[in-house]
Amino acid sequence: MSAIVPRSDFSLLSANPALVYLDSAATAQKPRAVLDAMNDFYETDYANPHRGAYALSARATERYARAREAVARFFGVRDEACVIFTRGTTDSLNVVAAAWGRANIGAGDEVIVTGAEHHANFVPWQQIAIERGAIFTICPLTADGRADVEVLAALVSEKTKVIAFNHVSNVLGAINPVAEIAAIARSVGALSVCDGAQGAPHMAVSFDALDVDIYAASAHKMLGPMGTGVLIGRREILDAMPPYQTGGDMIAFVGDEQTTWNVLPHRLEAGTPNVAGAVGLAAACDYLTAIGMDAVAAHERALVKVAHERVSAIEGVRVHGPSAAERSGVLSFTVADIHPHDLATLLDERSICIRAGHHCAQPLMRRLGVTATARASFYVYNDENDVEQLVEALKSAKRLFAVA
Ligand code: PLP
C-alpha cells in the first residue's frame, strides 16, 4: 500500500528519506503548496488588511476573504461569515467556553463533556462550570472509547446547557456519532460543541450535515500552518455570542461611554488577523480536496488495519480502542514492561517518530487504567513500509528489554 501523495510534495520528508513520520495526530507535515501559498502572500500581497485605502491592502483583504471562502467550502459551510479564524482548536474551544459560557451558563446548570476529551475540550468547560457554579458531568464511554449515547440521552435534562465532545479521539481514533449527540443536545436545548481537531484532517466534514452548533479545528493537523484554526458556528449562536476580545476590526463605533460591534465574521476576530495562516489553511484545504477526503479516510483506514493486526500480534502488546474497521488513523498501544517514553526513544534511534505520554487526555488515561500510551498516527504520506518499520522496531525493542 503506497502513500496517496508523492513524498516529494513534502520538503521535509524528501530531505529526510529515512524518516518514518508517525506523529501526524500531533502535527502534520506541510506540502510545498501550503508553504508556497503563504510565501506568495508575503511576497506579493502583504499588507495589513481591512484598514488600508491603498491597493496593496485591498489585495491583502481579498486574499483573506478568498481564504475564508475556501475554508468554508472545505467544511461544508454555506455562510462563510460563520467561519471564524482563530489560533487553533484550543483557542476556538476556549473562546466558546468563556464567551458563550459566561453569558449562558448559570448556577445549577449542567455542562457535559465525555471522558475521552483532549484537555482543550475538557478543562475550559470544567473551569467555566466552577466559575458559574454549574454541575460538571462526565459522560461515560463505550468499551471502545466513544461517548455512550444511551447513557447520554438519559443524563440530559433542561438543566443541561452544553454537551462538548470530540469528533475523533486523539488517543483511540474512536469516531463519535456526531449527529446523534447533536440531536440529544438539541432535544433539551443545549449547545453541541464538537472538537474536530482529529476529524477534519482525516474525513469529509460537512458542518451543515453534522448539524452541530459549534465545530473547531486546527490548521496544523490538516497540512496547514501552526497558529491558525477555525471556530465554525451556527449564525444565530455566533451572532448572540458576546465578543471574546475587543479591538481592531471587530469594532463598528467607539463612543466615550459605549462601543458597538462589527458584523460576523469580524466581530469575533479582534486585532490584526493572521492572514498568512488563513492563506496556508486554505491551500491545505485545496490540497486535501484534490486528493478527496474519502480517499484520505480510506487510505488511513487501510494502513491502520494492517498496523492494528501486526502490532496487536506482538506478544505483550495491548492496543487500546476500537477495532480497525471503526477507527481513524490512530493506534495507541502499551507494551508490557516497557514504558512508552522508552519505546519512543528506542524508535527514534531508527528515525521513527511516535508520540508517548498522556496525549493531553489524562481523564481518558484514568479510564483506560494507564498513565501513558505510545501512539502511532498515519496520514496521506505514510505507506505500508512505515507500518513494517514500526512493527520491526517494536519487536526489536521487546528483544532488547527481554535481555536487559
Ligand atoms: N483536540 C484534540 C482532539 C486534539 O488532538 C488536539 C491536539 O492534539 C487539540 C484539541 C488541541 O489542538 P491545538 O493544540 O492545535 O489547539
Q: Could you give the order of strands across the largest sheet?
A: 2-8-7-6-5-3-4
Structural class: alpha/beta
What's the CATH superfamily of the largest domain, by name? Type I PLP-dependent aspartate aminotransferase-like (Major domain)
Q: Biggest sheet: strands, sense, closure?
A: 7 strands, mixed
Task: Please report the distance between the alpha carbons of the first and last residues.
Answer: 36 Å
Strand segment count = 15
Strand content: 15-25%
Please write the CATH class name of the largest domain: Alpha Beta
**pLDDT under 50 segments (min length 5)?**
none
Provide the number of structural domains: 2
Structural write-up:
- This protein has 404 residues and is an alpha/beta fold.
- The chain folds into 2 domains: 7-22 and 292-401, Aspartate Aminotransferase, domain 1 (Alpha-Beta Complex); 34-289, Type I PLP-dependent aspartate aminotransferase-like (Major domain) (Aspartate Aminotransferase, domain 2, 3-Layer(aba) Sandwich), CATH 3.40.640.10.
- 41% of the residues lie in helices and 16% in strands.
- The protein has 14 helices and 15 strands.
- It has helices spanning 11-15, 32-44, 55-74, 89-104, 123-132, 149-155, 178-187, 207-210, 235-240, 275-291, 293-312, 340-348, 362-368, 384-403, and strands at 20-21, 83-86, 110-114, 135-139, 160-166, 191-195, 214-218, 229-233, 251-254, 259-261, 317-320, 330-335, 352-353, 355-357, 373-377.
- The chain has a 7-stranded mixed β-sheet with strand order 2-8-7-6-5-3-4, sandwiched between helices.
- Helix 3 runs parallel beside helix 10 (275-291), helix 4 (89-104) runs parallel beside helix 5 and helix 11 (293-312) runs parallel beside helix 14 (384-403).
- It is globular and about 75 Å long.
- The mean pLDDT is 97.
- The site of pyridoxal-5'-phosphate has 13 residues, from helix 4.
